[in-house]
Specification:
CATH architecture: 3-Layer(aba) Sandwich
Helix content: 40-55%
Protein name: Ubiquitin carboxyl-terminal hydrolase
Number of helices: 10
Radius of gyration: 22 Å
CATH superfamily: Peptidase C12, ubiquitin carboxyl-terminal hydrolase
Organism: Oryza sativa subsp. indica (Rice)
CATH class: Alpha Beta
Strand content: 5-15%
Shape: globular
Enzyme class: hydrolase
Catalytic activity: Thiol-dependent hydrolysis of ester, thioester, amide, peptide and isopeptide bonds formed by the C-terminal Gly of ubiquitin (a 76-residue protein attached to proteins as an intracellular targeting signal)
GO molecular function, one term: cysteine-type deubiquitinase activity
Largest sheet: 6 strands, antiparallel
Oligomer: single chain
Structural class: alpha+beta
Length: 273
């Protein structure tokens, strides 16, 4: 990542002023702290919950997963397709007997079908789930807010003509990479992010190792939206009523995998009723 911003503080007051200033009416929604992941503490969070933001420390495992995810995307998830060139060469050199040509042709058709199915599924997902890649360093807090609001747009009333109103209308038909490029060149968002980053209680520091992701429920599925990944990660069935509890299960597992760190934070975006 070339451009780097000052990171946003994991602070509901900061996130609320940021969100309200960009076009979510103050009486529509607000971020609040989630003080713990036990049922009693989750019950204290105002309902309904529209999204969950999770801040956690990155590890070498996260870097490995990002690289493997990129590799999986580049091969469309079909390992068998990567060896067909060699098979074709074998056919041309008559090493493969003629009787095996039918098998090879069938495998080529299967690979083509699987590739088209993967492309179709990815396209369908991108139309249902609002997702953007992150190409600006330390912009994960802003990307998390964008994911949270973008996937709750039907439940929120954005101020007409506001930044968010214009942003989502302009990027609705873009793919995740195009949205990232649009955001990277957007001076208005960069200025708003800078103001929000300077409003926190801690000293601003560009050298951080923590990362924000967002959890949203879309069409009955829980999605983890991480701008470092190539696409949304589905964690199984969910509902608007159980979004917080379902996200908490995933977050608990993430925390358990890094027991030596205390740098975790959870915030919920709640609809004001």
């Amino acid at each position: 990542m070339g451009k780097r911003w000052i990171p946003l503080e994991a602070n509901p007051d900061v996130m609320n002023q940021f969100m309200w200033g960009l076009g979510v009416a103050e009486g529509e929604a607000q971020f609040c702290d989630v003080y713990g992941l036990d049922d009693e503490l989750l019950a204290m969070v105002p309902q309904p919950v529209l999204a969950v933001l999770f801040l956690y420390p990155l590890t070498s495992l996260d870097d490995d997963e990002e690289e493997s995810g990129a590799a999986a995307t580049s091969t469309a998830g079909d390992k068998d397709c990567t060896i067909t060139v060699l098979e074709i060469l074998l056919v041309e050199s008559t090493i493969v007997e003629f009787a095996e040509l039918d098998v090879l042709v069938l495998r080529l058709h299967q690979c083509a079908f699987n590739l088209l199915l993967t492309i179709q599924n990815t396209w369908d997902l991108s139309k249902r789930v609002y997702f953007t890649k992150q190409t600006v360093g330390n912009a994960c807090g802003t990307v998390g807010v964008i994911h949270a609001i973008g996937n709750a747009a039907s439940k929120l009333k954005l101020v007409e003509g506001s930044y968010f109103d214009r942003f989502y209308k302009q990027t609705v038909d873009m793919d995740p990479v195009q949205r990232a490029a649009f955001l990277e060149e957007d001076d208005e968002m960069e200025d708003a992010h800078s103001v929000a980053a300077s409003a926190g209680d801690t000293d601003a520091n560009v050298e951080v190792n923590e990362h924000f992701v967002c959890f949203s429920c879309v069409d009955g599925e829980l999605y983890e939206l991480d701008g470092r990944k190539s696409q949304p990660i589905c964690h199984g069935p969910s509902s608007p009523d159980t979004l917080l509890q379902d996200a908490a299960k995933v977050i608990k597992a993430r925390i358990a995998s890094n027991p030596d760190s205390m740098n975790f934070n959870v915030m919920a975006l709640s609809k004001v009723v």
